[in-house]
């Protein structure tokens, strides 16, 4: 079954931007002569000063240096807005669907988007923001989030969005990490009928920020907030006076566009840096081709702008292409499990892009939630964030897509800026669970995990690396280029290491098998086990903690925490709840452990290293495969852990 090939229908292939033959030709050209290929496709954005150098990229040890279109200049906001005004001023740029279906949706035209972005840019300038300064955005999914991103891009400020589900501590760490001059937030974030108090979270976060950081507050609900005169600025009030013609700054292609913090296998989240020219070329090109976006289509990516998916496929990619992009404030299950499909019907969505975890959750609620809506405008379905299991794929295909919509399973990462491995829907036959083939210019390789050598046979299994750069690649870790090299280029020299394992089948199709490092993928969101561990051990009653992933029906992976308590502290259900809410406040709800096991001891080598391999196996309920335990300092620890596995079943 998993190897079933579903080719694009003739009708789809015929009207698609890229058919099978074009894909083969363009892909071959893109790797045979990348300079020529990207010189041509670099033209899909408007340059103020055209580039003459296509790229200078090096993955060489000690000299990791990635530049695309480096002597060109451009402005991202001008590309996403101004250049469309002549032909699309009255076209809807953003459809905003609020959390509560009884509230009115908004249709924001390109002309309006231009005015609002200019006003926001003008407000930021008045607050002292200059080219190169950092602005942290902590907002609900409201149009102002897009205005804020584009306003930063317009004046050359670097934005860093923090997902509204993150805690005050996580927000504070990110404000400090990039030394932000301004924080843009809202009073409250409505989501699924509940409200997150963003402003009070921001107030708490700023207690840990020692440098001067002003706050711009959007009133989303009008709910009560506290106000600090001098620091806090009222967006609604400033907007009335703000100029709606703020010039777009001329930016170098390699000037940073944004920083986005993401979890890794060690330490604190790192600030992934994306720059201006290459990122925009790549985001817009993948948006057009992967989703086969055509003029006039309504495109909906259900992600939050707090993740890279929202950056590339709600805002930058679609708007650079003059698209109509839908922005949804709510959740898939509010007011009921039919919300996604109600919104698809209501706004006549043509391309729909979501995560497997949402599909699995909705699949369990019954088909009636889908079938009662008219989904005949849907032409294509997309998946992102984790491997999609064939069962979910088939349900998505038949029940949601009516068997007529190609499914694009897009593999990529915060670091990659845009899709790297994905079917192009008019060109590539799909297989449930496979991300299929590389995008143009992308050269995936499968390395043997131990020797680091490239497996050249078509069929291969190992770690997934990239042999060469692509324009959307991250350029550095904010403030720590060494960490950039260490994280991505040091395990396998000369390659970009993705952190994922993969298999290449006899047809040359790629199957992502999941992270091979200490990162877990919870509902398509990345969580570093080290981060959760350090949150746990920060609790006074916890002596030691080890966190691993385990298979979870809905989330893909769940968070499994082994906790050793301080001497004299007794385990209890209350303490379990206390630790859960502790982690929620330290990091955010997405980091809350799904299972906590009290562990009197952890399996360690004689040199004191925790053997996570064993902990993973126990969490997976896979005791037959514990492997060699003879190097453990105290092998009996393992028996105790097996005996007491949480939620044993
Ligand atoms: C990790 C990146 C980039 C979008 C959202 C997540 C996993 C992502 C797929 C897919 C299998 C996938 C990988 C990757 N992943 N897409 N289609 N099939 N796995 O971004 O938080 O940077 O996470 O998500 O493990 O490394 P992210």
UniProtKB/TrEMBL annotation:
InterPro entries: Ac_CoA_lig, ACAS_N, AMP-bd_C, AMP-bd_C_sf, AMP-binding_CS, AMP-dep_synth/lig_dom, ANL_N_sf. Acetylated. Deacetylation by the SIR2-homolog deacetylase activates the enzyme. Its cofactor is Mg(2+). It holds the Pfam family ACAS_N. Its EC number is 6.2.1.1. It is an enzyme of class 6 (ligase). Mg(2+) binds at residues 537, 539, 542. The modification N6-acetyllysine is found at residue 609. It comes from Roseicyclus elongatus DSM 19469. Residues 23-80 form the Acetyl-coenzyme A synthetase N-terminal domain. This is Acetyl-coenzyme A synthetase. Residues 82-469 form the AMP-dependent synthetase/ligase domain. Coiled coil: none annotated.
């Amino acid at each position: 079954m998993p190897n079933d090939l579903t080719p694009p229908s003739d009708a789809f292939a015929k009207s698609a931007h890229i058919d099978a033959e074009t894909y083969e030709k363009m892909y071959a050209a893109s790797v045979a002569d990348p300079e020529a290929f990207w010189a041509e496709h670099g033209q899909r954005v408007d340059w103020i000063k055209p580039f003459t150098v296509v790229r200078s990229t090096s993955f060489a040890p000690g000299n990791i240096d990635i530049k695309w279109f480096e002597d060109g200049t451009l402005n991202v906001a001008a590309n996403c807005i101004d250049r469309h005004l002549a032909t699309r001023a009255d076209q809807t740029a953003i459809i905003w669907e609020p959390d509560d279906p009884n509230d009115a949706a908004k249709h924001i035209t390109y002309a309006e988007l231009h005015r609002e972005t200019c006003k926001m840019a003008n407000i930021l300038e008045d607050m002292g923001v200059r080219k190169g300064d950092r602005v942290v955005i902590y907002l609900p999914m409201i149009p102002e989030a897009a205005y804020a991103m584009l306003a930063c891009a317009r004046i050359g400020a670097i934005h860093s969005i923090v997902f509204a589900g993150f805690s005050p501590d996580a927000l504070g760490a990110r404000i400090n990490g990039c030394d932000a001059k301004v924080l843009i937030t809202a009073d409250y974030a409505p989501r699924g009928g509940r409200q997150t108090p963003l402003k009070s979270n921001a107030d708490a976060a700023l207690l840990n920020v020692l440098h001067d950081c002003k706050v711009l507050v959007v009133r989303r609900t009008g709910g009560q907030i506290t106000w600090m005169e001098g620091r806090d600025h009222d967006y609604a009030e400033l907007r009335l006076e703000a100029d709606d013609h703020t010039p777009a700054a001329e930016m170098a292609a390699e000037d940073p566009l944004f920083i986005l913090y993401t979890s890794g296998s060690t330490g604190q989240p790192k600030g992934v840096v994306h720059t201006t020219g290459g990122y925009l070329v790549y985001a817009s090109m993948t948006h057009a081709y992967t989703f086969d976006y055509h003029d006039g289509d309504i495109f909906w990516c259900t992600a939050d702008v707090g993740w890279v998916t929202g950056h590339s496929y709600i805002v930058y990619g679609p708007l650079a292409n003059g698209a109509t992009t839908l922005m949804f404030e709510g959740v898939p299950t509010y007011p009921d499990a039919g919300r996604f499909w109600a919104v698809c019907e209501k706004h006549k969505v043509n391309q729909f892009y979501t995560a497997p975890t949402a599909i699995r959750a909705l699949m369990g609620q019954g088909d009636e939630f889908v079938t009662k809506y008219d989904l005949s405008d849907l032409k294509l379905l997309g998946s992102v964030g984790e491997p999609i299991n064939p069962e979910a794929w088939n349900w998505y295909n038949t029940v949601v897509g009516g068997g007529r919509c190609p499914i694009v399973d897009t593999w990529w990462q915060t670091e990659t800026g845009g899709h790297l491995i994905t079917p192009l829907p008019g060109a590539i036959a799909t297989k449930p669970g496979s991300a299929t083939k590389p995008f143009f210019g992308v050269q995936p390789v499968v390395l043997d995990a131990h020797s680091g050598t490239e497996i050249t046979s078509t069929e291969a299994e190992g770690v997934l690396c990239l042999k060469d750069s692509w324009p959307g690649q991250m350029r550095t870790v904010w403030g720590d280029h060494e960490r950039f090299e260490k994280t991505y280029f040091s395990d396998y020299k000369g390659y970009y290491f993705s952190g994922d394992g993969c298999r290449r089948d006899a047809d040359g199709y790629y199957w992502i098998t999941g992270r091979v490092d200490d990162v877990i993928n919870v509902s398509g969101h990345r969580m570093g086990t080290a981060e959760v561990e350090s949150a746990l051990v920060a609790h006074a009653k916890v002596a030691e903690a080890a966190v691993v992933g385990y298979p979870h029906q809905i989330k893909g992976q769940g968070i499994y925490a082994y906790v050793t308590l301080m001497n004299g502290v007794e385990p209890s259900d209350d303490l379990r709840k206390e630790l859960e809410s502790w982690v929620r406040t330290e990091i955010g709800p997405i980091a809350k452990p799904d299972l906590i096991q009290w562990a009197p001891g952890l399996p360690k080598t004689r040199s004191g290293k925790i053997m996570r391999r064993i902990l993973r196996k126990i969490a997976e309920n896979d005791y037959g495969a514990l492997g060699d335990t003879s190097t453990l300092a105290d092998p009996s620890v393992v028996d105790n852990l097996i005996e007491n596995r949480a939620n044993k079943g």
